[in-house]
Structure formats: structure tokens, C-alpha cells
Write a structure and sequence with these properties.
Helix 6 crosses helix 7. The protein is mostly helical and about 375 residues long. It folds into 2 domains: about 230 residues, no CATH class; about 90 residues, no CATH class. The longest helix is centred in the middle third of the chain and has 29 residues.
Length: about 375
Amino acid sequence: MPYARTTLRLILPLWSSCAGSTLAQQADRLDPDKVQAATQAFTEISRDVQALGDWSDQAALFETIMDQAWRDNQWDSEPDRFARELASAVTRIPPWQFNDRMNKMTDMIGERYNLDTGQRARFQARIMREAAGFAISNAEVIASQARDFVDMRRTNQPFTAERIAKWTRESDPLLADGWVRMDRVAENMKRDMNPDQKRLLQKDYERFDRRMDDFLKRRDAWAKGEWSPREWGLHKDPAHSPAARRAAVTNPDAAARLRPDATPGHTDSVIIPADIARDRDRRRPPDALPHNESTWARYIRKFIQRHRLDAGQRDAAHSILAELEARAAQYRLKHAAAINAIPPNEHDTADKLAPIRAMFDELKARADALLTRIQRDKKKD
């Protein structure tokens, strides 16, 4: 899981390179027409990525980006180091070797959490289903960004602040979708874990949440065009030298926006014009969506961290969550036809989903009831 989420936020174009293989293996679970269209697009992208040459050159680029992120944000705890090792191990495998990547991820996750054979198989099956669903839901954006990436690397063009801003804004829905899907993978794993495994998973998730918070702080700046290659450790990359960067800014107005206070010898950032900057609102995935029980686990994790619940309180909170998730799932199954007919943008107000939203209110109330008087007093503060 740390790899998938790291990839999601730092190197979104790589999803396209393995998506075609994922879809082919999960086609019976997805809409055939969408599978065909997405598979064709991702197959073309995979071919183009392979045409870039030795994969190790591209892997080195992503390793550099991740190294800089871990270093700048001081992600140096043991869970952080494991997440970095997992990301590195999978990144070194060419993305068109999808099964090899999946097996490496499963092996390292299995070793970390001491998963038995059945747990490993269920983890791999679940993450493959979620990857396929992610690819189908976001195929257009993924393919577009992957083509941009391949074209820029093939022609040795630098990433520009404008391009990073565009990718960042386009990726908001992908970030939210990926976040929810990976939460489902984790919750699915947790259901048959023993207490020691659950504790380690919880520890890893707490550090993941911190990494995401750090990332989202920078995401707002990137969406405004406040980015430079140095931030991703690319200032020594030939395509990102100061001369190459300036040559890439062909619009005189854009060239005039180069930061006047940039350090000599460093690659400058470009300020995005006001009309683009106004479209920078962060669409960070919320702690939970009341109408979507698959997102409630994140609310409970945040609740546990925020109020520093003890072991007994944590177990009770997870028990309440499991109960309400099951009730919501039963209701959703019983009314599947009516719920599936509701447009996605109406889920938060649709009458048919009101019982599920009420269950989320119950979840919050019962979680609040677990707090001691001291914890409640701190909550008021």
C-alpha cells in the first residue's frame, strides 16, 4: 500500500503503463466497452514508454523525485523507510512487467505484516480489482498525462511549472479516488489480521497520513505554478538545466514571470497567471463521505489519532465501525438498483441514501461517546 499511494501522488503517469495488464486480468468485473477503450489507450502508452529505452533511466528519475520528497519532509521513521524501500523496489521493475511488480509488492507487504498464504492471495486479488477500477474510472486523465510525460522525456523537454500546475489540478479526482480505493484495500486486509498485524498496520497508516498532509501542503503551491525542478531533485537533470528551462518558456509573457528572486544557477519557478491561479481550490479527500461507507475507516483513524485513544477505545471504535459498515453494505445491497440509478453528484443529498448518511451520524456519535471527560474537554478546546 505505501507504494501505490506514493506512486499515486508523485508519478501518476506510471499508472497507465500497467493499467492495460490489470484490466485484461479483471475484464469480467468491468464494463466491456470501457475495458476495451481503456486497454487500447494503455497498451499504446505502454508501447511508447518502452520506446523511451532502458527503463532504468526513467526509474532513476522517479527515484530522484522520491528521494527529494523523503529528505525535504524528514520522513525518516521506520514506517517511512519501509514505504520508501517498497516504492524503490517496485519502481525498478519496468511497469509493463505488471505481474512482477505485483508479486514484488505482495512479497514485501506479506513479509512486513507476516501474512499467511491466504492473506497474501486476498491482498493481491483486492489490490488488482481496485487498480482495474481506478484505471477505468480515470482512464482519460491517466492516458493524457502519460502521453505528456512520454513526449517530454522523448524530446528531452523539462517539466515546466505550468505543466506541473495542470497535472496537479487534473489529478485531484484521481487522488481522491485512489485514496478511497486504498482505504478499502487496507480495511479488507484488517478484517482477518491478528492483533499484532493490526497494530503494525495502524502504525504505518499514521505515518502515511502525515506524509499525505505534508504532500497536500505542497499540492496547493504546485496548483498555482509555484514549483521548481530543485523541489523534486531534478536541478541536475540535463533537461532541467537553467538554459533548458528558459528555452522551454517560449511565450514572452511567460518568460517575464520567471521569479526575479531566483537563486543564480538554480532553475526558476514560473508564476501562473491570476486566471489560472483562481482555479486552484484543493479538492482534498475528506475524512469521510457520509453517503459512502467505504470512506468511514479514514474518519475513525483520524478520530483515534486526534484524541489519542487507548487500546480499549481503539478496539471499541473499530468494532463500531465494522458494525455500521456491515449495516450500510446490507442496505446498499438491498436497494442496489435504486442507488445505482442516482447520479454521483447527488449522492450527498439523495433521499435513498439518507439511511446510510444517518448511519454515519450514528458512527460519529458512538465514537464521541467513547471519549473520557478529559478527552472531551480537549476536544472543546
